[in-house]
Amino acid sequence: MQATANKLQETMGTLPTEVSPTYLPADEIDPKTGKKQIKTMKALVWVGSKDVRVVDDAPVPTITEPDDVILKVTGTTICGSDLHLYHGEIMALQEGDILGHEFMGKVHEVGPNVQGLHIGQRVVASFQVACGDCKYCKQKLSSFCDNTNKSSLQNYMYGQRDAGFFGYSHFTGGFPGGQAEYVRVPKGEVNLLPIPDNISDEQALYLSDVLPTSYHSVVDTGVEKGDIVGIWGLGPIGQCAARWAQLKGASRVIGIDRIPERLAMAEQAGIETINFDQHKDVVKRILELVPQGLDVGLDCGTFHEPKAWLHKVEKALMLETDVPETINEMIVAARKMGRCGIIAAYAGFANHVNIGALMEKGIRLIGNGQAPVHKYWREILNDYIIPGKFDPRFMITHRVPLEDMGRLYGAFDKRTDGVEKVFVQTQFSDSPGEKCPALTRVKDWA
């Protein structure tokens, strides 16, 4: 699939953008020879399906365009949507691509146009690269920026294209990601948020994606006071979405998953749970609990783990790329005129969608889109994290060094040792903060 997608995109050419995804390598003086050489760093690169590796010879980026900022990465992480890359399910990956779209760090270098950031300042990056000037950016809808993704393939498939994303294939612009020791952030003043000194890296890192994404799913789908909300998938997005729904006044929140540690984490927060290993018919169980149906359903899960044999076969034969099982369950479990939001990262085409129930029940099926981080990150920081109303550290179950990231992908995919969210440290990171797990090595996990 990757070779075909890359060849097709090459044939179609690229679309004009305001920023380039490629960067100039930094150089340094070799102490032995006195000659200039390319400065290198550790980074996690994609090699092939289920093959990602940490290399130590990736070139360190330097200022390439006048609005650039170069970061020393002090914290990065792995996202559930990174597993789509790991499994080769996102198109236009190329060998050697540096992955990672959630990261933060300290400003290392600034371009000549950058006035509002200074060397050594702590910042978190949005997972999307926004231009700051198009009609979407002016509304803080940064994930829909018109000017940063050159992918003609995405433009052809979707009719338009999203913003460029860090570390998420050439389908989203081909920008090197932040699972590395250094990263180049184009339009740095637009795409970086300064972090106050009294907020730890562990509290700030997830403003890059998980917190705005989960918050967006709740706000965009319209969770209101008194609503009964069902959440499919209790990974980090689902766990946070459940807590946001509670903060927005939901009368009941019901989470659907099968992983014991995830179910227990949700229950500790007052969330009702359904284990779909025990209740094979999820819709039947929901309607036993809520006879009138859910007011809101949120798809916070994944499309790469089909349950039914029909979808397993169709997906294996590439007769569909994505699986609609969760969407169908939401549609049937929702009340008439209910709202169903899709924040899970779907990419292509699904078969057997229950469009009849969607139409007849008047369901509002909402594609939430990639979350516009810039719309929410200041609100989440100032109104929730700083006052202590929402502490993202609850979801951090592990801390590992960058060197372990290749092994981490496999462990995260298998949910080894109850892993939920990981703080990945680099040589530039501080020691673990308060309420955070100590450093471990993935090979030692149970």
UniProtKB/TrEMBL annotation:
Protein name: GroES-like protein
Domain of life: Eukaryota
